[in-house]
Protein 1
Amino acid sequence: MIIDMHAHSFPDRIAGRAMAGLIRATRGVLTSIGDGTLTNHLDQMDHDGVDMACLLQIATKPTQFEVLMRTAKAIRDGEFGERAQRKIIPFPSVHPADPDLFAHLDEIAAEGFKGVKFHPYYQDFSLADPSVWPMFRKVADLGLVVECHCGYDVGYPDRFDACGPKEVAALLRNVKGLTFIAAHLGGCAGFGPHETDPLVDLGCYADTSALFCNWYRDEEMRLLHSWPTERLLFATDFPWTVYSEAIRWVKEFRDPADWDAIFSGNARRLLGI
Ligand SMILES: [Zn+2]
């Protein structure tokens, strides 16, 4: 079984506009696989034998909670078809500046969603800012999983101050019991070798989405090889990666004895599926 912990796609009718914005934001650094539609996403998953994918939303403004929540519920309730209902695990998103932040987090948990996605650059906050720790405390108390962009972001090439290893460490030291998945192999991109190592001892999870089209970057390969098996989750950041390539890369650097845990076991444990 294969679960992708980190993917993006959009309802078919809005995908064109959403993808145009994202492609502009990536400044040509990343190439989209397919057209960004949920339908294409499901087709690609079926083609490469991916059973389920967490669909990560990002509320870039406080007002976006409602519309994103509507989409998440529609997927859950089968309005986008049986295949989406069966294979897609929506992760809603709240903006830290949302005046109804805590009520919206309660709603996410009450509706049965498993986790929330954060992106500090697109949401204009730092993980090390004590003013956001009560939000993460609430997330932890609700038993929700956090999947968070970490490290360099192609859309913000000059910024390293919101979700690098130091900021993740500050959060995890101050919000105990938080299940925190640091995307892109702990957010190593943009930082020196071994800078993410302290995160391992802080209980941090890492996803295997690689952020760059070049699979053979030294620090990414080292972390993929060495991050504790029980805290590593297969992920792709689709549509910026071909599923078959992402699967091959993880298999190349991990012993087959680890594959079950990394490709689905850890995700099933964290998500309760
Ligand atoms: Zn992503």
Note: The first strand starts at residue 3 and ends at 7.
Protein 2
Amino acid sequence: MSALLSVSGLHAGYTKDVMILRGTSLELSKGELVVIIGPNGAGKSTLIKAIFGLLKPSRGSVTLEGEDIAGLMPHSIVARGVGYVPQVANVFPSLTVEENLDMGAYLQPRQAAARRRELFEWFPLLKERRKTRAGKLSGGQRQLVALARALMPDPKVLLLDEPSAGLSPANVDEIFQRIGEINGRGVSMVMVEQNARRALVNADRGYVLDQGTNAYSGPGRDLLHDPKVIELYLGGK
Ligand SMILES: Nc1ncnc2c1ncn2[C@@H]1O[C@H](COP(=O)(O)OP(=O)(O)O)[C@@H](O)[C@H]1O
Ligand SMILES: [Mg+2]
């Protein structure tokens, strides 16, 4: 199967001299949910940012449907069908839910209202809260706003950076369920998660990133049962 998104031998960092990613590779096929786990500071967020054009790679390639997108600006990457939900600061707190969603459609403002109605069908809670400022919502609700905003342009690929971080157990359940549904509707996904076991159970494939390089990769359930992965990255047992 040919990859929808392919990252190969990527080197990138925040300054010229310090590379955070040192030869990272990743593949996402159509329809897959691929999960990235690894210790704090491994470079998981950096990898997502580099795919989305927020960091310019110094070596290696990023291709989307065979086309090189490394070094393109984020808005060009959005226009090619990639959405991104950042780990932090992923909503505009002073804007309403509705305005947040419309920010996600800034490339096609005329389609915004129709797409927003579709997403409100899908996320009834957001419809109820559409006139509420995002900053007034609970953490779980804000995460749904961020997800819906990223879905506004109807992306083929969604990049999710720790969508369950800081949420209560009930909200973690809801966000994982939503992510599963979105994937079920055909959106291919790369998801970074600290909730590693849970994320790997539902993943088609997983990658363990450590110190900017791939440590392990394989089907989600194989990683879950790999003694080395368990010992080093899943906290034993
Ligand atoms: N904006 C930044 N400027 C400089 N260094 C950064 C920045 N963001 C992250 N880093 C550094 O890059 C490394 C990887 O960070 P990150 O990709 O956020 O890790 P992870 O998401 O795996 O926890 C860390 O050493 C971190 O301190
Ligand atoms: Mg991170």
Note: DSSP finds ten helices and ten strands in the chain.
Protein 3
Amino acid sequence: MRLSFSVGVVVAVVALVALLLPRAAAEGLPLGGGSGLVFATAAEGREVVAAEDEFTARMSPFDRQARLKSAGPVSSAEHRAFAARSVLEWGDRDRRAITGAMRGLEARFTEIGVRFPERVLLVKTSGDEEGGAAYTRGTAIMLPAKVLGSATPVLRRLLCHELFHVLSRSRPALRERLYASIGFLPCGDVVLPGDLEDRRITNPDAPLFDHCIRVKVDGVERSMVPVLWSRTATYDAKAGKPFFDSMEFRLLAVRVEGDPPRGVPDVDDAGEPIMIKPEGAAGFFEQVGRNTGYLIHPEEILADNFELLVAADRRPPSPEIVRRLGEILGAGK
Ligand SMILES: [Zn+2]
């Protein structure tokens, strides 16, 4: 087939323009670099939370029971169906609140040099599925309805925090460099000692206990992994409290062996696991800094520092942590 001259010229011009144009404008609220934050339909949201992933695979029997506030055992399928039922449609007021909170962030992300996945989904939920907390799965951020009424700066910080989790999950090599910048190195996915494994509490933003930090405990150098579990052996469905109420957090001593490295819980002379609070670990705060009290995982320490990096509105107690984070993100453009 031959095109007429004029049609040929139009085709050539269109092709040239397409070549010269930068990457298509971002869908949704722009995050820089052609990435966008997109309001998910309820159907899209249900697909995200009902999916099987590292989080659902790692959940303990306690995890599932506590999410459903159930007195009996809960299967993974039941839990995922429950999570799907918590998804809501976005309203105009919600969209306005998010749009306001995101104002100016595209320029700041571009300045830092951070590159998010092309399409980050925002899912509104009732909050019932995750103790009322905001969290992430895959490249999606789940926001419970109650946080949408927060003041704009609060919502902005929360969005930055959650965006860090999405970024970190989508770039594994960058994640390793970032974790190493605060002293955390891979140590396999540590299984909790004794019956604690059945009542581990799993954080969707960082489902594995898989990075350890070297510190001194009572003068002995050790590898420690931050772990979470429930104080109560079973979920108290009668009281019906959120799982956060019974959550314990400690640094657990592990022996790290093999290649790839694998951490196995270490024991003291009495054969008991060695579990301490961060305050008892000499050298801990020297590595992670003192910019946040949210120390349950290197992922969370860094997400809080990312909030500070983006806001750049105050001098934190450990500015070097924020500076290094900015350097690594900028170098990973
Ligand atoms: Zn977080």
Note: Residues 161, 165, 205, 300, 303 surround zinc ion (CB under 6 Å).
Protein 4
Amino acid sequence: MNVSEAGTAIAVATNSVPVKRILGRNPGPMTGPGTNSYLIGTQSLSLLDPGPADEVQLHSFLEAIGTATLKYILITHTHGDHSPGALALQEATGATLVGRKAPEVAGHDRTFVPDKIWQDEEIIDVGEYTIQLIDTPGHASNHICFLLREEQLLFTGDHVLQGTTSVILPPDGDMAAYLDALARLKNMPLTALAPGHGEIMSEPQAEIEKLIAHRLKREQKVLTGLNSLGACGLDELVLRVYDDVAAHLIPWAKKTLLAHLIKLEREQKISQANELWQLK
Ligand SMILES: [Zn+2]
């Protein structure tokens, strides 16, 4: 059985609240197998991250919703592979839009307009289940993870991915904020992580600790790279710091490298002049 068939609603293992994953029809180098959308509940449903605007996928959602009612559309962040499908889905169902509006930078979907200003830690009581917003800026400044409280299942969007690591794109992406948000999740009693791309992760704390360690190891590589290369530019430094990354991903690695450099500069460990970075 091909469990990753796009458009098909596949049950996620839960105890009391049904959750289904519906894979998007957008596989690619940055989206892996495609964007995961999740449908939560039995009669009063919430759909998380409808993905790109796609009529075929919209039809799959409506089919999976069936005679139940879609109450909420939850948006982790407004990158193009997560939120643009919300508009047509909202028009078709009248569901309430939950999330934060797009920041004024390139790469964000401005068609998404939430129905109100949602607060960090706000709890949405759907009746059958409750969902809590957890602010997790870093990958994007408006990123939210959603906690299905009855299951302690966290929908992580692009904050924690399976099979790959999130790209942090400055100026909207922020490495220090990203690490702080990971540290916040580390203290939560979670049972599983449901990512925006990839498979469900059943050992949340181990995954989160691994991610924090991975970023700090990369940061150390930035410092040792600068120590041996002296003052250097992004193009030179990226090859040293991301020597384990495939060539076609280097342009993305460069952006995350810049996020590391900005963090280190703020911490006054390094400095920059004329596009050259060096240790202080
Ligand atoms: Zn994203």
Note: The longest strand covers residues 69-74.
